[in-house]
Amino acid sequence: MMRLQDYPTEPRYTATVLSTEALTEDGADVEVRELVMAVDEHDFNFEIGQSIGVLVEGAEEFGHPIHHRLYTVADLPSPSQDGRPEITIVVRRCSYLDDYSGEEYVGVNSNYLCDRKTGDRVTITGPFGMPFKVPDDRTANLLLIGLGTGIAPFRALVKHIYRDVRDWQGKVRLLYGAHTGLELLYMNDRRDDFSNYYDEETFEAFKALSPRPNWADPIAWDYAIEDRIGEIRDMLDDDHTYVYVAGQRRIRDELDRLFGDLYGKAVWEEKKAALRNEGRWVELLY
Ligand SMILES: Cc1cc2nc3c(=O)[nH]c(=O)nc-3n(C[C@H](O)[C@H](O)[C@H](O)COP(=O)(O)OP(=O)(O)OC[C@H]3O[C@@H](n4cnc5c(N)ncnc54)[C@H](O)[C@@H]3O)c2cc1C
Question: Across the strands, what pairs with 25?
């Protein structure tokens, strides 16, 4: 896996913020914003599943004059009204507690991005990586599992499948975890983008929330998929299924626990390794 310091910070592009909108509902413990930006340079091309880098200058206290962080594109590539490439990203405002002092520090780039206003300019790099490809076979099943901002690449992928590829015959199942209903992105009262596909016979989305949101408990994936466990197991056992996982790193442990319980730990480890080797289990974790 590539380390962040290995990602090149050149060439650099300038993007102008076209819009910024809160995706989380009022009262949620976290703030997640959607930023739509137009890249000034017309030759900036990217594909679904890729991430862009954002550079913020002046974070010298960590010994780095420039702070470089990655954000996954959340929409299909499309030109803005004046023909510049348009990028949508989804950013969670981060802060961290220092274990020793107990002081709270704000994350540099996420706060920088969440504070940008329409018309502000941002320096970006990339695009990088391309974890999630659409299988050539339209009867392939896709099990998409996202946590928090991990919904970003799936928003673009699902849109691409039903808008551009069309006539998808395999099952597309989106399993989406968040701490509370207020933190479900693109699937809440404020915005429900996935409702565009609820009429598609092959598409179904379901949500997993934490049983005790204030305790930072793991997401209760097991409750959410209890009545679908048969279908999910059938999908995992079908060699036409691709499993794509995105979001914070802890989702990996939560899924290993869940599927380890379902199959038995050793069997699951072997099964996951086989899926991985065949390119049918792909993770975008951070
Ligand atoms: C491939 C990839 C895709 C990603 N996609 C997304 C995405 O779509 N959306 C999204 O929101 N995020 C995404 N991320 C995560 C994102 O890149 C950043 O890691 C995240 O936004 C936090 O960056 P930051 O600059 O705000 O925090 P940072 O400032 O980098 O803080 C991060 C670390 O520094 C420590 N720290 C911070 N401040 C201090 C301080 N003052 N003193 C001491 N320690 C401190 C914290 O403990 C923390 O561990 C992605 C990451 C990767 C690798």
Answer: none
State whether 94 and 229 are in the same domain. no
Give CA–CA dist 17/282, Å, rounded.
Answer: 31
- For the segment 47-60, the average pLDDT, to the nearest whole number, is 87
Residues forming beta bridges with residue 19, ordered by sequence position: 36
- Determine, yes or no, domain membership for 146: yes
Q: 135 in a domain, yes or no?
A: no
Specify the CATH number for the domain of residue 95.
Answer: 2.40.30.10
**3-class DSSP assignment, residue 34:** strand
- Answer whether 0.85 is exceeded by the pTM: yes
- Neighbour tally for 286: CB within 10 Å: 14
**Does an H or E element contain 169, and which?**
none
Q: Are residues 115 and 153 both part of a single domain?
A: no
pLDDT of residue 81: 82
Nearest CA to ligand 1 atom 28: 107
pLDDT in tens, 67-84: 999 999 999 988 878 889
Residue 106 Cα to ligand 1 middle (Å): 10
- Using the 8-state DSSP alphabet, how is residue 161 labeled? I
Q: What is the DSSP letter of 110?
A: H
23 lines ligand 1 (CB under 6 A): no
Report the residue among 50, 91, 110 best suited for mutation to probe ligand 1: largest number of ligand atoms under 8 A from its CB.
Answer: 110
Q: Which domain holds residue 21?
A: 4-128
Q: Tell me, what's the pLDDT at 227? A: 73
